[in-house]
Amino acid sequence: MAQQQVYEKYYVPDQSPWPIVGAIALFLIAFGAGNFVVEQTKGESGYGGWTLLAGIATLLVMLVGWFRNQIHESMAGKYSAQLGRSYRQGMAWFIFSEVMFFAAFFGALFYARMIAMPWLDGAGNNAMTAEVLWPNFEAVWPLTKTPGGVETTAMGWMGLPLYNTIILLISSVTCHFAHVALEKQQRGKLIAFLGVTILLGCFFLTLQVEEYVHAYREMNLTLQSGVYGNTFFLLTGFHGMHVTLGTIILIVLFFRVLKGHFTPDNHFAFQAGSWYWHFVDVVWVMLFFFVYIL
Amino acid sequence: MSTATTELDHDDHHHHAPSGIKRWLFTTNHKDIGTLYLWFAFIMFLTGGAMAMVIRAELFQPGLQIVDPNFFNQMTTVHGLIMVFGAVMPAFTGLANWLVPMMIGAPDMALPRMNNWSFWILPMAFTILLASLFMEGGGPAFGWTFYAPLSTTYSNDTTALFVFSVHIMGISSIMGAINVIVTIFNMRAPGMTWMKMPLFVWTWLITAFLLIAVMPVLAGAVTMVLTDKFFGTSFFNAAGGGDPVMFQHIFWFFGHPEVYIMILPAFGIISAIVPTFSRKKLFGYASMVYATTSIALLSFIVWAHHMFTTGMPVGAELFFMFATMLISVPTGVKVFNWVATMWRGSLSFEVPMLFALAFIVLFTIGGLSGLMLAITPVDFQYHDTYFVVAHFHYVLVTGAIFSIMAAVYYWLPKWTGKMFDVTLAKWHFWCSLISVNVLFFPMHFVGLAGMPRRIPDYALQFADFNKWISLGGFAFGLSQLIFLALLIKACRKHGEPVSDQVWEGAEGLEWEIPSPAPYHTFDTPPVIK
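Above: the input entities. Below: the structure tokens describing the complete assembly.
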């Protein structure tokens, strides 16, 4: 070690009540949801829904409190470049974990389509499976008639899905422009581009809801319509939840921008939100190809 | 090395621990959180162990006598879940919390508040899981692997609680893993280059990567179980175009890396202990790093060796067989290196070394039976017999858990500043060593003879062996009470004060700081030669 080493200052936060509040919130959410699901499917009344709501409320209180602490510390200049790197790396690994979550559902889609269905139709050494179990089943994708006989319609990629793809792609670009404007300290541009991104996100979600209504009311495409409907709704549904979360993050960022919280050197929260937005965008492109087009 | 300047901005000014319950609830200190993890893991170990006692009591004799079969199934299921997610994984995370910052010269973990959150989620998750045992219909009874359709069509309503408790366990693991990775990437003291890091840090880095890669897949699997059971989807139902075998693929894509999550940190621990008590440097440090990495990468392409009998094309069976056997190469490198480290060393046999030696021998037995199971045609006979139970208990109990005990004995004096009760520790070791082999070794024989696992009753010809297995089990369970007594004594700070280095041959940053380790270490980054 030849040169002078400067060890960056490191901020060890004081004791914090928020993590334990967060743990209690997750307890209430998990316990509430576990009961709520059963009560809903059985049509019973119970305390599950209320427990779940209490959990979500606690989680929100925790998030507000925790983030407020973080923001105050950040504004007080307690953070260092090293901590900024820690946060960025943490966010990157979190996004990687989200990628793997979606990978599980994409894996299910590919397996059902490429392996399970052809086998049910007699591929490989499974001739008797088809013969004995479901002689009338034909393995076609999208699966519009399940082996058990449930019929549905396939969702095309023209129309709403295509518009949504364009909307999200544009929003990714505007999000990037907002980031560039932040780094160049062009406040007007930053506010405008971030605002447009949020609007596009809301627009996407509205169209997605419309698509679901259309699927349920007119196409008989539901969560119960076999593995095509399952993968369709779980993939687009989890994606939609992520877009919702991303939009909320962007809205929070928007107000923080209005308050002038970010500088070109210190804007981890903005960067994390923008990474997250690009991530949901990439997932959508994958969805558009593998769920809608192919 | 010139002077390293530091400007440490502590919000946390007290250099001694705050007192009272708030210390533990609100803590951001890696040592406190490590202690919480370790005690939680030990309590879960005793809880899961009590369930194993119920299982062994029922299997003491053929026939159904003590518990009803549904409760027996709940015991096997929850025993597995608790030991995997509640005992072994949190124990390793606790060790990582205590040791990684001290080993790399960091003042704390990179994200201390999230660290607290990761821990406190666990007691919540296990409260839910354990509470479901007392609810209508009982707890989960489909095995810790929750294969569909057992967990979908044939399970009870508390499955929803099981699903959500696994979800929050996963959140805890992922956050813990992110913290470990970021700490290692970003918090190393100047001069602590990658190839100078202690192997425990290396193995945990790779373990954390595996956790982030596969815990979300587990979350996906439980979500599909939830929707299949409650919302009418058919991921695992052939009538809707799905496939129950698909469940096994998704589950084991998580499950196999999970197996290495539970053994890689053990390799790191053994690689720290063996050199100390051999008074030699670790043989083949670089090859250990590469071996760990290749084991981790291979773990992603071997999952279907858990499902040789469930229906796959012959090509796939061969692929998974050969890929699995390939893992024995890097694992063999490790065992070779440990033995080579001891070769011509001046060995002494303190308690951590005793556990480490037991680990090397007994883990290797488990590894070799794993090699037998990897051979597809042979596995057709072994599948779902007690041979498999013997195999994974050798790698998990005498592997992972023995390594955790070795680690506790090795670092406990550093944590408390006092030497533990060596007499009790030796009693604990010898009682555990003998009883664990009485417990698990005969399982190989009954398994090869065809005794199926997870069944509360068995054919008469297995009676003699099962009696011995149960006796070994009870003895192993009781032996852990010695450990409990020892730990309570140690936490009350009985015993002789120890030096900073504690063990004569110990090397590494954690042995250069005072014993007990101060509440905050490395306010000034250490000099690394």
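Note for the figure: Chain A touches chain B through 81 residues (CB under 8 Å).
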